[in-house]
Write a structure and sequence with these properties.
about 110 residues; alpha/beta; 2 helices; about 40% strand; globular
């Protein structure tokens, strides 16, 4: 499988997508905390799922940017959109609420 990333705007505490063990038939590779030495721990999986905050500064060939949901396009939301939209090297697909789409395209 070509490397793919699913990234979410709400972050791990509030994301339904990042909590899933499988998505689209693929087992997810998720951040699961830190060990006693401070090293990141990950679940085993083929589909990397990350919050937009944790993936800042990194990139992947294909990114699905999901759970984009806001009522007002604030500077904070613009920043999250910029970070999410610039992670894909070849392709970025965005899954957003209707309310968010109205704000972006008005």
């Amino acid at each position: 499988m070509r490397e793919k990333l699913l990234t979410s705007t709400p972050g791990f505490k509030y994301s339904e997508a990042l909590a899933q063990e499988t998505l689209g038939g693929f087992k997810t590779k998720r951040f699961s905390g830190y060990d006693a030495s401070g090293n990141a721990l990950w679940t085993d999986g083929a589909l990397l799922v990350e919050s937009v905050y944790r993936f800042k500064g990194q990139s992947m060939p294909v990114v699905v940017f999901c759970e984009v949901d806001f009522e007002e396009l604030t500077d904070k939301e613009k920043h999250k959109l910029f970070v999410g939209l610039t992670r894909g090297q070849v392709r970025v697909d965005v899954v957003m609420s209707e309310a968010s789409a109205k704000q972006v395209f008005k």
